Amino acid sequence: MGFILKLLMTGAAAMLSAYILPGVSIDGFMTAIILALVLAVLNAVVKPVLVILTIPVTIVTLGLFLLVINALIILLADSLIAGFDTSGFFAALLFSLVLSVITAVLDMIF
Q1: Could you give the C-alpha distances from 34 to 71, 81, 90, in angstroms and in order?
Q2: Tell me: the pLDDT tens digits for 96-106?
Q3: Could you tell me where the DSSP H helices lie in the chain?
């Protein structure tokens, strides 16, 4: 039950983030749920590999390169999902930041 609730909250956060940001669009709530599921899989599979491969750069930038990795994962999800579009790297970076903040707030509430 916890995973489904987390998935629904992330989908709602993605819809809200896309509504706030001008360079991001999501077709509907079902696309947002699919986006949340794809992001969960990408964060579980791809992100650890990218983090390990970029440890030197992450250390030199004091961890700020992890934001770039998050944006790359958003861009990868953009290429995988038909109803989710970002206008570029900067939009993906802002989307990942806003999505993280909204998801954290929703986690504190529920």
Answers
A1: 18, 8, 22
A2: 999 999 999 99
A3: 2-20, 29-53, 55-60, 65-80, 89-109
Please say whether the beta carbons of 18 and 74 come within 8 A.
no
Residue tagged 């896309």 (tokens): 18
Q: What angle do CA 44, 28, 17 make, to 5 degrees?
A: 60
At 25 the three-state DSSP class reads strand
- C-beta of residue 40 within 8 angstroms of C-beta of residue 9: no
Q: Is the pLDDT of residue 107 over 80?
A: yes
Tokens at 107, concatenated: 């986690």
Judge contact between 58 and 51, C-beta under 8 A.
Answer: yes
CB atoms under 10 Å from CB of 87, counted, come to 14
Tokens of 43: 């964060």
Is the confidence at residue 1, as pLDDT, over 70? Answer: no
